[in-house]
Amino acid sequence: MITPSLDACGAFVSYLETLFALSMNDLHTMINDFHGDMRTGLSGHEGSLKMLPSFVDKPTGREKGAFITLDLGGTHFRILAVQLDGKGGTTVLGTRQTAVPRKVMQGRGEALFDFMAEGMDAFLTKRGFERTRTYDLAFTFSFPVEPTGVSAGMLIKWTKGFTATGVEGKDVVILLKEALRRKGIDCIRVTALANDTVGTLMARSYRDPSCDLGVILGTGTNACYREKCAHIARLEGAPPEGFMIVNMEWGNFDKVRRTCYDRDLDAASVNPGAMPLEKMVSGMYLGEIARRVLVDAVQRDVLFLNAAGALKRFKRKGSLTTPEMSLIEGDDTSDLAGVHDFLKQKGVSGSSIEDRRLLKRLCGWVSGRGAGLAAAATAAVVTWMDPELKHRHTVAVDGSLFEKYTRFSAKMRAVLTDLYGKKADNIAWVHSRDGSGRGAAIIAAVAATASPQGPGHSSKANFP
Known about the structure:
The chain is of the alpha/beta class. It has a domain at 57-195 and 435-459: ATPase, nucleotide binding domain (Nucleotidyltransferase, domain 5), CATH 3.30.420.40. 42% of the residues lie in helices and 18% in strands. The protein contains 16 helices and 13 strands. It has helices at 6-20, 24-42, 102-105, 109-127, 172-182, 196-205, 260-268, 278-281, 283-299, 310-314, 322-329, 337-345, 353-385, 400-404, 408-420, 435-450; strands spanning 52-53, 64-72, 76-85, 90-99, 135-141, 145-149, 152-155, 188-194, 211-217, 221-228, 243-247, 393-398, 427-431. A hairpin with a 3-residue loop joins strand 2 and strand 3 (76-85). Helix 2 (24-42) packs across helix 13. The radius of gyration is 23 Å and the shape is globular.
């Protein structure tokens, strides 16, 4: 049996713990920097926070009607038929979900939009929609978009592994309309270009007036909030008393301290240099950060020194996922039997209890930093709106990281309590499911009501 140097092991473990820790000074500095970049973005100058206007405000809760939503935001796209009852309630009447093949994600843009149009055609046919009627649709496109109106916007840059050509710099609503026309679908009127983050806020605020911040914590991360129109410089002529939801694109916030593991991950990504915060917080990347730390620890003879197969099994990119991190961190058995079984399934035999404990701690450091950064970003937005935290703020959150990762939300709450003590109770995180579906329908309702053309026929009647 090989015995490592306890001093060397201890020093490296302490180094890792410190490397991923966030001090109170780190958190306050981040909040101040966040405010600075919010100010820059709202003024219309170039900064890491895009601060994009959505051209819609929060719903009143009285919006009513039937709407279709088409949602592209990750490895799947969905189509939903949603009914709003005008009393804060929503009902999904039909849905279709389709995986987006990698060749479509990374092929020609025209093929991507044709793929969605084919899905729409199948949905309309299967559900028995009358093609002689007009149906209002919200297109949920959860990538960085420069909006030019409530139903128009140009893709700034692909994220989340998408690289389809011929889309960046183009109006994605026009591309969708062209694809629908090629497919012979002329019963759809696109009334809103929605973002899943804005949809998350809208879905909750439809029945909860205290909701003024929407956050995505899933494959990626983003946030939106309610801002005074007078503060948004690019909205020339906007009434000073009006409000509008602003899509921050906070995954691109760049004033965060990165480790060598973060820099290596970024260099190996499909979008080097982009989305620094997202690459430290979101579900697409947490597992990969932890894997890189794990491999470094194995190569330094700190972890799995006497366990066969560890380096080989974890050397491959993607061989430790964020859900697997959650499984590891959530094992509270005395001998970490769940972690032992996980390692055996991975082909790593002979792990010691010390190995398993260190692996669990390692995952905790990486997820803890992610949760801390997400909490600090949330705190920055809330204190921008309410510096003294005098009022209640409901934060609508959607995404598998928030919903399913063991202890992630609890770690976020702990950071807020450290920052603000009892006042942290005025910030309530609430899981808001399906902002990209139900929320997008609400956006379509708000937009259709404000449209000079008025709502489409679908908004006045139930679907088939």
